[in-house]
Amino acid sequence: MRILLLTPLYPPAVGGAASYFADIVPLLEEVPQIEQLVLLTEQFPGEPKETITDKLTILRLLPTRVSRERPYAMHALTYMQTQRWFQRKLARLVKTHQIDLVHFHTRFRGKLTYRALAKLPVPVLADLRDKMSDPSALAKCSQHLLCCAQGVANFAAEGGYPVAQTTPIPIPFVPPQPLPERVLQAARTHFGLGERPFLFFAGDMTQNKGVFELLDAFTHWQEAHPGIDLVLAGINREGRPFTERVERVPQVHYLSHIPHAQALALMQASEMVLLPSRSEGLPLTILEAVALGKKVLCPPNIPEFDAHLSDFVLPEVTIDAILATLTTIWQNPAQPSYPLENHRVEAVVAKLLRVYEKLLRP
């Protein structure tokens, strides 16, 4: 079995896709039936274009697009460049490495990308981890679909992906270990946060993540809680409109992109972790926060959170809803609890292997 993994992010890049593949790749390398893993991802500063270790070949050949903060014009340009790369070179890469199956993260989008995948002579497995891709388009370029959460599976079915060709597989998750107080203090000092308590948001600064509504809601929430700050960490994909909004709201600290270890330190040091997003599948940020014993404000329309974190879920992404839910959670002494054991990496990889074998069965 020779597998090609397509992911926009891989460590040292930071993000959900990077964490996902970093968790599953080491276990896939241990599978006797897998002869070779080839992982194709974006170029990253300081990293070689090719790294070969035993079974794993990492190819950093794609244009740098989502792993770094870019002006909108450059973001749009690299979107087209990535599609053209797939159009011109994907089939040759599959042939050169004698690939049997392609497993791709659906953050790769666009007509040229889908066309290149559809033309491949091997099975294609799409991995849907949010609600940003068109399921009907994915159905035309892949033979099977992985869904990381029930809400994502519902979204795929409603969007036209055949249910019989869909497999729900929980997102793998390794709970972070609590950090000592000195590490938390060092993170506060490094980012100039002082000793004031703060709320924490980690993720891309985009409309879909609800950051503009969050800033407006925090402005109103400050009136009753003037001693609490808001800390935002992540790549700004909205450009000047976002930075101008941040500059108008007092007690907001925008840190841009920070390493994952520092994000975890700030998460643990915070009073609450906020994610008022519209497009999540099942966000690791919330699982990390719960594992660290933090209160959370969860995005809506995620059945798993509705079942286990109902007191901490937004009903919708609006200023009024964020303000009301934030106030309720702040006043509620209850701590969130979630069955993290459902996300063990070993169980996830075992299910993934069964899908691989099914697709490669004569």
Explain this structure.
- The protein has 362 residues and is α/β, with parallel strands linked by helices.
- The chain is 40% helix and 16% strand.
- The chain is built from 13 helices and 13 strands.
- It has helices at residues 16-29, 72-96, 111-118, 135-141, 150-158, 181-190, 211-221, 240-248, 260-269, 284-291, 303-308, 319-331, 345-360; strands spanning 2-6, 36-42, 50-53, 56-62, 101-105, 124-128, 144-147, 166-168, 198-202, 229-233, 252-254, 272-274, 295-297.
- The strands form 2 sheets. An 8-stranded mixed β-sheet has the order 3-4-2-1-5-6-7-8, sandwiched between helices. Strands 11-10-9-12-13 form a 5-stranded parallel β-sheet, with helices on both faces.
- β3 (50-53) and β4 form a beta hairpin.
- α1 (16-29) crosses α13 (345-360), α6 (181-190) crosses α9 and α7 crosses α12.
- It is globular and about 65 Å long.
- It starts with a strand and ends with a helix.
- The mean pLDDT is 94.
